[in-house]
Amino acid sequence: MKYKLTLEYDGTSFYGWQKQKDKYTVQGVIEECLEKIYGTPVKLVGQGRIDRGAHALAQTAHFVAPSKLLPVNIKKALNSLLPSEVRIIEVEEVDEGFHARYSAISRTYLYLVTPEEVPVFLRNYIFHYPYTLDVEKMKEASRYLLGEHDFTSFSQAGEERGKIRKILKLEIEEREKLILPWCEYPIKNVRFEIEANAFLRKMVRNIVGTLLEVGRGKILVSRVAEILEGKDRTLAGPAVPAHALFLLRVNY
Amino acid sequence: MKYKLTLEYDGTSFYGWQKQKDKYTVQGVIEECLEKIYGTPVKLVGQGRIDRGAHALAQTAHFVAPSKLLPVNIKKALNSLLPSEVRIIEVEEVDEGFHARYSAISRTYLYLVTPEEVPVFLRNYIFHYPYTLDVEKMKEASRYLLGEHDFTSFSQAGEERGKIRKILKLEIEEREKLILPWCEYPIKNVRFEIEANAFLRKMVRNIVGTLLEVGRGKILVSRVAEILEGKDRTLAGPAVPAHALFLLRVNY
Question: Cα–Cα distance between B158 and B163 in angstroms, integer?
C-alpha cells in the first residue's frame, strides 16, 4: 500500500525538510512517527527539499506501508504523535506508480515582503525590506525569467546537476493587507507567487532578491536578462531570507 | 530622567520576563540593550512578572537614565538592538514619582481557548481544549470570583506573600472568529478577559482552568465558591498552559 501525505509545517525551528543525522528535520520527525505506528522503519519520500527556515502550506510526500490502515486513521495517528508545528492535512491511498517527486508537474511558492515595521507575532513569516519599490519595473524584469532557461545565475553554489528549469508563472502583486491562511493584517506588502516545473536550491530567494534590487532602482530592468544569460551565480542579487518563503502547493 | 516603556513580545522562546542568570529573559535582553546605549548598566523595573511562555501586547516598565536622550531616539535605538521577538511600542518621559509597578492601578489579561484543531501557525497563541463548553455556566461561576477575595486557592505553591486581590472584570465570550491584533482567523473560540488590581502567579491560568472544568460539566457552578472559600491551592482545577495567555494592558 502506497500513501500520499499532504502536510503543513512552520519551518521556524526545523533544520529544513530533509532528514539529517542529529538534526531536527520535518522528514525526520514524520519518519519517527511512522516507525512508532508501524513498528518498523518506513521511508518517506518528499516532493523535494524545502529551504531551512521556510514554511509549507501543502508539502507532499509518499511512503510504502508495511501493513494496511485506513487513511483517516493514519492521519489521526500521525497528528497525535507529531509535534504541533507539523500537521497532516490529508492522507490518500495512491497507485503504485505514484511518486511524490517524479509525478509532480509543478510547484508553487509564495514570498512576502513589507516595507513596514513587522509586528513581533509575524516576524517569522514576512521579510522587512525598508525601501520604496517600483512594482511595475519588477513585473517588467520578471518577464525575462518566464519560460525555460538555464537558471545557473539563480542557483546555489556547489550544485552540480542540470540547471534548466521552466517558470510557468511569476506574479508580483502589491497589497494593502497581508493575507495568509491563518492571518489577515493591515500591512502594505508585496507578494511574489512563482510556479515552476521544479526549482533549484535557493532559486526563489535569489530571484526575489534580484527583483527587489530592480524595484528599488539599484539595478536596471534589462540587467535581469543579462544576469540570466550570464549563467554565473555571482551575478544575481543577494538571496532574501528563508523565513518569508512558503511552499503553497504541489501540482500533480 | 525617568522613562516609561511600553512593549510587546512573543514569549515563546523566552524564559519569562524576569531576569535570571544564564536565561534568555525579556528584562534581561532589554537591560543588555540599555547598557549598550548608555555605556553603563541600567536597571529596568517591570510592572510585574509574566509567566514563562505567555505573551505581552503592552507590558510596561520604567528606568532611570544616566543621560538625556529624546524618547523617540531611545525607541529607535532599542528596536535596532533588540531581537525581533520584542518591540518597543512607546517611550515616554515620566515624573520622578512614576513607578511601573506601584503606580499601576490594574492589569488586564486575555486567555484564548478553542475546541477546534489549531493551525500550525497559531499553535503558540491559543489553547486546544477539545470539549463542548457551557459558556453560561462558566459566566455564572465567574461571578463568585469578582471583587476582593483571598485567592490562595488560585495561587502558585510556595508563594508566601498576601493573597488578597481584587478582580474588577471577568468577561467570557464565545466567538466564531479568532481576533488578535495581528490575526483574524475563522475558528470557534472562547475568550477570557480578566482585569484585577494585581495578580498572583499563575492566578489567571488557575482561574481559567477551573472555569473550563465548570464549562465541560466536570464540576458544579457552586463548587467555584467553595474552592475560593477553601483557601487551599489543591482545590482548584489544573492550570491551563501559558502559551495562550496575553498581557493586554496595564492601567495607570
Answer: 12
Q: Residue A117: its chain B contacts at CB < 8 A?
A: 87
Chain A, residues 151-180, CB within 8 A of chain B, namely: 180
Is B125 in contact with B10 (CB distance < 8 Å)?
A: no
Alpha helices, DSSP H, located in chain A: 26-38, 71-81, 135-142, 203-215, 223-230
SS3 B32: helix
The question of whether B134 is a catalytic residue gets the answer no
For A44, the 3-state DSSP assignment is strand
All domains of chain B, ordered by start, with CATH? 2-94 (3.30.70.580), 106-251 (3.30.70.660)
Estimate the crossing angle of helix B203-215 against helix B135-142, to 10 degrees. Answer: 130
Smallest CA–CA distance, residue B135 to chain A, in Å, is 25
Q: Which helix (H) or strand (E) holds B164?
A: strand B164-175
Q: Is the dihedral of CA B213, B217, B219, B221 positive or negative?
A: positive
* Per-residue CA distances from A209 to A126, A200, A236, A242, B92 (Å): 14, 15, 8, 11, 38
Q: Which tens digits make up the pLDDT trace of B72-84?
A: 999 999 999 999 9
pTM for this prediction: 0.89
Amino acid letter for position A203 = M
The catalytic position among B51, B95, B150, B232 is B51
C-alpha cell at A74: 493514519
ipTM of the complex: 0.83
Any B CB within 8 A of A86 CB: yes
The residue assigned the cell 493573597 is B163
